[in-house]
Amino acid sequence: MITLSKRQKRILIILLIAVVLFFLIQKLAESEPTTVSFGNIYYVDSADSEHLLVTMLDIGQGDAFLLECNGKLAMVDCGPPEALETILSYFDVHGIKKIDYFFGTHPHDDHLGSLSELIDNIEIETIVIPEVTVNVSPWYTDLTEKLADEDYYVEIASVGNRYFLGDTVIEIIGPLSEPSEDLNDYSIVMKVSFGEMDLLMTGDATTSVEKELLNANINLEAKILKVGHHGSKTSTSAKFLKAVNPDYALISCKVGNRYKHPTKEVMDRLFENNVTVYRTDECGTVHLIITKTDVTFCVEEGDYLSGPELEEKLNG
Predict the structure, then answer these.
(1) What share of the chain has pLDDT > 70, as a percent?
(2) Which of 32, 63, 110, 186 could form a disulfide with 77 if both were Cys (CB 3.0 to 4.6 A apart)?
(3) What's the pLDDT at 52?
(4) Per-residue DSSP letters for 106-162?
């Protein structure tokens, strides 16, 4: 029989505890995403291949979305110039130093207004934007000239192109034809797929683009819909919503915005179709942790009030 000294016993106990903790941590890592809470901000390890983290940033009236999977990051729009501070603060908290893909849906200030300064503050590997030939504002002309002069890698959005964040596939599915003079209809329409889960993002595309997609018999069905044009009545037609058939809707807008987004027509339509709503004007920044078969939201769901109705409720 081997006799151990007290010191040897202590070392053995420490080693046994370390082994147990190691296997416990491994087991937890296999079953649940690693999340860290910063107040109402949640973060899942972006190197995790079992989860896709989607973040709808509360940047006021505009869009700014982050998609993280397998250690790679994509950003869809970056809001108006005043959104820059919020975005950079989020990046600082989460140690984000690089964006692999940036998708600028269309040249409106509330979607791309902060991009000129954003590219000065963080590395972006690939920038994807539509080719716009009409009604271009001076600020957007300045932006495209800056991208060209400083030798950024820019791709023109093209239907059928796919981009990969590990197991996550981002496919451009619209617009299908040359848009009208309405800059909203230049919006890149993309389907984000992770396992059995799909997120459809339409920028500010109007019902005319939606109709074109419907007529092309494209599979639009998605578990989650980023509601077009911040909930404006110019998007999210009844036929389009039926084709997408989402369980959840994401709306990015500001309390008291002058456009009265989201509109009563769209909110009533979402209610009638039993679509659960998450909206930045009520919920703040919204985080989705998506597995290949399900999704978890890290905030309470919103309601179906229009923008003016919500403003009245909050001020009442």
Answers:
(1) 85
(2) 63
(3) 97
(4) SS-HHHHTTHHHHHHHSEEEEEEE----SS--HHHHHHHHHHHHTT--EEE--TT-E
CB–CB of 308/315 below 8 Å?
Answer: no
User: Rounded to an integer, what distance in angstroms lies between the CA atom of residue 273 and that of residue 176?
Assistant: 27
Q: Please name which of 219, 216, 184 lies closest in space to residue 198, comparing C-alpha atoms.
A: 219
Residue 11: per-residue pLDDT: 57
Q: Which CATH number goes with the domain that contains 230? A: 3.60.15.10
Q: Where are the alpha helices (DSSP H) in the chain?
A: 6-31, 84-94, 109-112, 115-121, 138-149, 207-215, 238-244, 264-272, 280-283, 307-315
Indicate the length of the chain as a whole number. 316
Structural domain range at position 91: 42-315
Which tokens hold the place of 159?
A: 């239907």
Q: How many folded domains does the chain comprise?
A: 1
Q: How far apart are CA 286 and CA 244, in angstroms?
A: 21
CB-based contacts of 209: which residues, under 8 Å, 6+ apart?
174, 175, 176, 179, 185, 187, 189, 202
pTM for the full model?
A: 0.87
Q: Does the residue 18 lie in any domain?
A: no
- Is the Cβ–Cβ distance between 101 and 75 less than 8 Å? yes
CA 226 to chain centre: 8
**Does residue 7 belong to any structural domain of this protein?**
no
The answer to whether residues 160 and 186 touch, using CB atoms and an 8 Å cutoff, is no
Q: Please check whether residue 4 lies inside any domain of the structure.
A: no
In a domain, 109, yes or no: yes
The residue ranges of the chain whose pLDDT is under 50 are 1, 20-21, 24-25, 27-43
Q: What is the pLDDT of residue 151?
A: 85
Kindly report the backbone phi and psi dihedral angles of residue 173, in degrees, each rounded to the nearest multiple of 5, phi listed first. -120, -5
